[in-house]
Design brief:
It is a single chain. The protein has 253 residues and is an alpha/beta fold. It contains eight helices and nine strands. The chain has a domain at 80-151. The longest helix has 19 residues, at 234-252. The chain starts with 6 loop residues before the first strand and ends with a helix.
């Protein structure tokens, strides 16, 4: 691992054209290969910050640097949105092919990578299915496979499991941790769930209400790999309580 952080946020702020100050004074360092969650109340700028890291929107002030990547933002960052955003008229294989198609890669050349991505999310048998034939959890797996197919060094995830039932969400959390361990991505994960953030992350950045800023950077001390024993442990409950307390304290001021 490089001594320099992969991503460094320095005084990042965002003011929209309407005059709304969404974020102010955000400072953070993200190490290569780490799993970091952003937790905070609705409207605190979590998704805005994620989109700025992705380069989808620009900060109004401050800087987002990539010291361990030679100073340049990687061009193949993976982004998973809250909604699966699949093309309903296209089969699963064609939905996953889309980012490679946009890169000019022929489908016959892309198919091995597509099938590998499908295998990683447990959907090898559904390549020819349409989205309407899939459950909500399966659609999200396709969305993750579409992000994986470009073999991204960084995976940004914006509340990807928020609309799913608790059982499916826990299963996908476990699957995500297994993929992260095998792929060595850097993951930045936005969630409203304190419990999910503690279960998944090495660090949780607790954000305050708008204008968003980072209140606390909390390290999660937990075994690896994680599982139900950790979810039911006193250590897990204690970490959740610590983050919840930070959120309540931030709400006061």
């Amino acid at each position: 691992m490089s001594a320099a952080p992969l991503i460094e946020l320095s005084g990042v702020a965002k003011t929209y054209d309407s005059g709304t100050l969404a974020l102010t004074g955000v400072d953070a360092k993200i190490e290569r290969g780490s799993f970091v969650s952003l937790v905070g109340p609705s409207g605190c700028g979590k998704s805005t910050l994620l989109r700025m890291i992705a380069g989808l929107i620009e900060p109004s002030a401050g800087a987002i640097a990539w010291p361990a990547a030679g100073g340049e933002r990687p061009t193949d960052i993976g982004f998973v949105f809250q909604d699966a955003t699949l093309m309903p008229w296209a089969r699963v294989i064609d939905n996953i092919y889309l980012p490679l198609k946009l890169k000019g890669i022929a489908k016959k050349d892309a198919e091995p990578r597509i099938m590998e991505a499908l295998s990683r999310v447990g959907l090898s048998d559904f390549a020819q299915s349409f989205p309407r034939e899939l459950s909500g959890g399966m659609k999200m797996r396709v969305s993750i496979a579409r992000a994986l197919v470009t073999q991204p060094p960084v995976l940004l995830m914006d509340e990807p499991f928020a609309a799913l039932d608790e059982f499916t969400r826990e299963k996908l959390d476990d699957d995500l941790l297994e993929l992260w361990a095998s792929q060595k991505w850097t993951v930045i994960f936005v969630t409203h769930s304190v419990y999910e953030s503690v279960y998944l992350s090495e660090r949780v950045l607790v954000m305050g209400a708008r204008p968003g800023r980072i209140l606390q950077d909390i390290a999660i001390e937990a075994p690896s790999p994680r599982g139900r024993a950790f979810r039911e442990s006193a250590a897990f409950v204690g970490q959740c309580a610590k983050i919840s307390a930070a959120l309540r304290e931030g709400a006061k001021g």
